[in-house]
């Protein structure tokens, strides 16, 4: 039999069978090209080959082979080890290494823990000969093949797992994820529909823009730029509209109740938070604020209504620099309000820094100021090009910042510093499939960067059903085109590299 033959947990189902097999020896790896090594699996010495076969057959005949000559000579100098086995032993109890699926999963986990992923895949494949269509083994086989870059094998295993275990959320999620990673997100519609029917969070995050009002004029913000041109419309999403949207969309791991605006300017944000929490659809409810509008008692009400955590934007606490990057910011007021929030809601307030060319030189001072206020977790994100490209950090500068983050952590031990999107990914962005956004008017967009008024959308959730919008022909067509190239609306994204047309 060929190189794909597995002798781990081998089961021959015909009594009295004759098995003829030939195995390369482990030393073959030393003389094999890198491209061919993947085909050399289950390598055996003469002793281990005999041991395996002896567990299945009564009579064994061992040979050795050099070039095209088969002989019974010295095994250690042979290139290959053919063998013939005759007289299969009884199945079941007579097969000491036939493991149950649970035992096999433990063995697979141990191999993976040792970094032996290919060996673990062999074990999974052999076990499926014994336990065909066992869902856990199929999912293990799929995940291992995906790790090894065997995309089609992984997809086949996921698809089979979905067929034999139609109610397994992890099977459908794995299939959808594998399709997305393979650049075939448009083919994931049936899987997404099934996930929706099973009521898991098929989205990882959804952003809902509850207001477009804001008290600041931040550099590079789409609202600031469009307002200066007289092209911005201020509006709030009503609590009733928000409720209709929440009722329509599927369960989601996280909902972010903000867009291009300051959420706390909404006339009934506590009501918005209460609707989200009362739905039971969201694992986490949060939003980002500039912390300059409401006092701590107001935020206490939000937490009481169901808010999970609060993110506060602080690009600088130095007065002149804060005013430059976030027009209208009173740095002294912000410092005081932030300190109060951190003391009153320990562990529930996260600081967000947007880092661009303007405030880069002040980063160390900003971190020192944040540590002095009692901040804990600090997330740093590169400036996003929404109309001010000159303030964006180059890839080289972002990489340099990432290199000094360990030094910053040592310099400011009171802070838990993370630098996100240090290097934009060349992969296909998954946001349009798993992290969409909804504008204040109810329009569903591919991601939270596409919230400017009048931009692209899949449809309106206040005018159409979720199924019509999310699974509609226009959405499907857009996803298929997105797989091939990045559309113009993705220009300037700090998270993913642009993909020219195939």
């Amino acid at each position: 039999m060929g190189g794909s033959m597995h002798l781990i947990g081998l089961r021959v189902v015909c009594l009295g069978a004759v098995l003829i097999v030939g195995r390369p020896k482990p030393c073959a790896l030393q003389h094999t090209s890198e491209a061919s090594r993947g085909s050399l699996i289950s390598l055996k010495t003469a002793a281990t080959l005999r041991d395996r076969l002896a567990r299945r057959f009564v009579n064994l005949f061992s040979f050795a082979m050099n070039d095209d000559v088969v002989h019974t000579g010295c095994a250690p100098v042979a290139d290959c080890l053919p063998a013939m086995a005759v007289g299969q032993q009884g199945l079941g109890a007579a097969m000491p290494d036939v493991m149950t699926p649970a035992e096999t999963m433990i063995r697979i986990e141990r191999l993976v823990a040792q970094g032996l992923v290919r060996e673990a895949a062999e074990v999974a494949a052999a076990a499926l000969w014994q336990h065909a269509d066992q869902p856990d083994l199929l999912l293990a086989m799929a995940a291992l093949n995906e790790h090894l870059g065997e995309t089609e094998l992984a997809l086949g295993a996921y698809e089979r797992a979905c067929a034999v275990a139609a109610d397994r959320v992890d099977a459908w999620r794995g299939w959808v994820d594998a399709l997305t990673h393979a650049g075939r997100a448009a083919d994931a519609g049936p899987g997404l529909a099934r996930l929706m029917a099973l009521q898991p969070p098929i989205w990882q995050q959804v952003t809902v823009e509850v207001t477009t009002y804001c008290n600041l004029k931040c550099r590079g913000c789409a609202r600031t730029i469009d307002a200066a041109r007289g092209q911005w419309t201020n509006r709030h999403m009503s609590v009733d509209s928000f409720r209709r949207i929440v009722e329509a969309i599927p369960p989601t791991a996280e909902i972010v109740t903000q867009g291009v605006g300051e959420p706390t300017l909404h006339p009934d944000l506590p009501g918005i938070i209460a609707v989200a929490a009362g739905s039971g659809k969201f694992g986490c409810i949060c939003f980002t604020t500039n912390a300059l509008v409401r006092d701590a008692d107001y935020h206490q009400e939000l937490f009481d209504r169901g808010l999970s955590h609060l993110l506060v934007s602080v690009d600088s606490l130095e007065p002149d620099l804060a005013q430059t990057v976030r027009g209208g910011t009173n740095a002294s007021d912000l410092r005081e309000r932030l300190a109060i929030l951190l003391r009153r809601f320990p562990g529930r307030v996260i600081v967000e820094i947007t880092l661009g060319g303007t405030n880069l030189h002040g980063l160390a001072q900003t971190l020192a100021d944040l540590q002095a206020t009692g901040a804990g977790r600090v997330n740093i994100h590169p400036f996003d090009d929404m109309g001010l490209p000159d303030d964006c950090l180059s890839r080289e500068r972002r990489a340099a910042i990432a290199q000094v983050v360990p030094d910053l952590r040592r310099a400011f031990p009171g802070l838990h510093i993370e630098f996100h999107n240090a290097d934009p990914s060349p992969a296909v962005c998954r946001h349009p499939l798993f992290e969409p956004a909804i504008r204040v008017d109810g329009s569903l967009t591919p991601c939270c960067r596409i919230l400017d008024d009048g931009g692209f959308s899949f449809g309106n959730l206040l005018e159409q059903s979720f199924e019509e919008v999310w699974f509609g022909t226009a959405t499907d067509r857009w996803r298929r085109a997105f797989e091939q190239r990045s559309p113009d609306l993705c220009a300037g994204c700090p998270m993913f590299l642009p993909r020219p047309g195939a």
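DSSP finds 19 helices and 17 strands in the chain. The longest strand covers residues 80-88.
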